[in-house]
Write a structure and sequence with these properties.
This protein is mainly beta. The chain is built from eight helices and 38 strands. Strands 27, 28, 29, 30, 31, 32, 33 and 34 form an eight-stranded antiparallel β-sheet that branches. The protein has a six-stranded mixed β-sheet with strand order 6-5-4-7-8-9, sandwiched between helices. The longest helix is centred in the N-terminal third of the chain and has 15 residues.
């Protein structure tokens, strides 16, 4: 018996017999998972890395392989009674675990090997497979152990390609050698080729000829000796949790300014144990100031399990940030304060750099006051302010930029030597317009709110009765109203969601008559709005409209309309109801439009618009 198998056996049985409290282990992963360093060019340092492995090997495919000859009744009963505990414990540690069930007897029996259940996630099916085990048969001491293991390694079950393949084998007798034509050497070669780990639970003389020792050592598995029949299920769990895994650091990416190595190159530990590495990070002697990165994936048995560590190294350098300020519409100059930063940490010696402004679309002195000077970082300082004064105005114009440029550094390199100052224009990039018209008969109107349309303004008009004629067509209307609304009234305020221009128009009763035709309308009304709504990157106008015709009769015949668009052909033209057009930033909603060869009659029309400005022809009032 090997030293490792004795230790595992004692540990397993001790865990079964001795109560106690086990300290909670760290969750699987690498610690620290992130490393942030400040180094000079040519410098290096080391970091100790601890990789905690999973208590159960990751993504396991576990096949329970039982000797079901006549002497194994007690062990089979124990595993059958505790099957849910085995699968539950493994699933608690590895929720992606899958399970299979198989048994073997001897070649003197009718079925020397059988797969009771293929690899599955269904624990009920696993229990059903185990329930098929019946102790019986055998006779002589050696059984068909090797044949069963060989069959499992060569396709009797289908393992997942990315799973940890484990066979938990328990029995009380060694195998014929060869067994089914497969020698011990053949079986070990097949198991290794299939990358299967074997956990062997010896409840009698399983390792009498050293076969279990040879198989577990060759496959990186575990042998548990001297296990009582009533403790087989717990021994299986202990064995699974004692399987060795190999942790290998793999550098997945690294900036060329850095080199990263780990010692040792790989480490073997029992599942749940910690592999420790010493990581060395070195900066190239010619590395420019900046921030550089490396990533290391600590593979478990050659497979990524997400144990990724990222290293960030900062080499001392100078940078200046970008600044955005609102221009303002009057009063004192607006300060634009930039920050010059010493990246990579404080320096033990003074660091200096020169700065100077430069024109972009913003021009000094009209838009800002030019500035220049020197910045000095005393030891321990990492940030210094540089302030440029911006001149406010009331002109609607595009946003403008200027720069603050760093030069002539001493004590550090330049990482980001240009700070962009953006002067944001405060004025809206457009305006709302709106109008509401209750009746319009060949250009003759009644009840018009905000007839100028641009700009939109709060207004309301009411007319009790109006009769408008278009040749032989007579339009009689009663109770006409139209209104417009602008929110907010002060359009110099910053655009906000809900800002809008709205228009509405309504007529309570209308009769349109001509020779041979009478059109009677109940309440007709329309609404149109341009509303600022949130979109990705800010606000944008949404154009909406609706209208409704409560009732309609044509020559005494009722027609149901409601709010849906409808066109009715007439002898004199066409009657269009609930019409809407949206184009070029304008929404127009008409409750009723009668088109004839000689006249157009529009009733209850609402309109809302958005417009740009000279500085922003494509602008709108929802942004500035």
């Amino acid at each position: 018996m090997s030293r490792r198998s004795v230790f595992v056996a004692l540990t397993a049985v001790g865990a079964l017999l001795a109560p106690g409290t086990v300290a909670a282990a760290a969750p699987p992963g690498v610690d620290p998972a992130t490393v942030d360093l400040t180094l000079a060019a040519g410098q290096s340092t080391t970091v100790t890395k601890h990789v905690t492995t999973s208590a159960v090997p990751p993504n396991p495919d576990l096949v329970l392989l039982a000797d079901t000859t006549g002497s194994m009744g007690g062990a089979i009963s124990n595993v059958r009674a505790n099957a849910n505990a085995i699968t539950g414990d493994v699933l608690a540690a590895q929720p992606t675990a899958r399970f299979g069930v198989a048994e073997y007897k001897d070649f003197t029996d009718s079925v020397p090997f059988k797969v009771n259940q293929g690899i599955t996630a269904d624990t009920g099916a696993v229990q059903a497979g185990i329930n098929q085990w019946v102790a019986g048969g055998g006779g002589d001491t050696p059984e068909a152990d090797l044949n069963a293991l060989f069959e499992l390694a060569t396709g009797a079950v289908t393992f997942r390609p990315d799973g940890t393949r484990i066979v938990a084998w328990f029995g009380d007798a060694p195998s014929h050698d060869p067994s089914g034509g497969h020698s011990l050497a053949d079986t070990i070669a097949a198991l290794k080729a299939a990358n299967i780990r074997v956990v062997a639970v010896n409840v009698g003389a399983l390792d009498f000829e050293g076969q279990a020792t040879a198989i577990t050592e060759a496959t990186g598995g575990v042998l548990l000796n001297n296990v009582p029949s009533n403790q087989v299920s717990q021994a299986i769990l202990n064995g699974i949790k004692s399987i060795e895994v190999t942790v290998t650091p793999h550098v997945t990416s690294c900036d060329p300014q850095l080199t990263l190595t780990n010692a040792p190159a790989s480490a073997k530990v029992a599942s749940g144990d910690v592999a420790t590495f010493t990581e060395t990070i070195a900066v190239a002697g010619d590395a420019a100031p900046g921030t550089y990165h490396c990533s290391v994936d600590y593979l478990v048995d050659g497979v990524s399990r997400g144990f990724v560590e990222t290293t960030t190294v900062r080499v001392l350098g100078l940078a200046i940030n970008d600044v955005t300020v609102n221009e303002g519409s009057g009063g004192a100059p607006v300060p634009a304060t930039f920050t010059v930063s010493l990246l990579g940490g404080a320096s033990p010696n003074p660091v200096t750099v020169h700065y100077a402004t430069a024109n972009g679309t913003a021009v000094a002195p009209a838009d800002y006051a030019a500035a220049s000077g020197d910045v000095t970082f005393a030891p321990g300082e990492t940030a210094k302010p540089v302030t440029v004064l911006v001149n406010p105005d009331t002109v609607d114009e595009p946003d403008e930029t200027f720069t603050v440029n760093l030069s002539a550094p001493a004590g550090a390199g330049l990482v980001d030597p240009t700070g962009v100052g953006t002067i944001v224009d405060d004025d809206r990039d457009g305006a709302f317009s709106c109008t509401g018209t209750a009746a319009n008969v060949i250009g003759i109107t009644a009840a018009v709110a905000n007839p100028a349309n641009l700009p939109c303004a709060d207004d309301s008009k009411t007319v009790l009765d109006a009769t408008l004629n278009a040749g032989l067509i007579k339009v009689q209307t009663h109770a006409l109203t139209a209104s417009t609304d602008l929110t907010p009234d002060n359009q110099s305020a910053a655009p906000a969601a809900g800002d809008h221009a709205q228009a509405s128009a309504k007529i309570d009763k209308t009769v349109i008559s001509t020779v041979g035709l009478t059109i009677e309308l109940g309440v007709i009304q329309s609404q149109a709005a341009a509303t600022c709504q949130p979109v990705t990157g800010g606000l944008a106008p949404a154009l909406t409209g609706s209208s409704n015709v409560a009732s309609l009769k044509i020559n005494g015949v009722s027609v149901t309309v409601g709010s849906a668009p409808l066109t009715i052909p007439l002898v004199i033209g066409s009657l269009k109801l609930n019409g809407q057009t949206v184009s070029g930033g304008v929404v127009k909603q008409q409750a009723v439009a009668l088109d004839t060869a000689l006249a157009k009659i529009v009733l209850a029309e609402s309109q809302a618009d958005v417009h740009g400005t000279a500085a922003h022809p494509a602008g709108n009032p929802c942004r500035r």
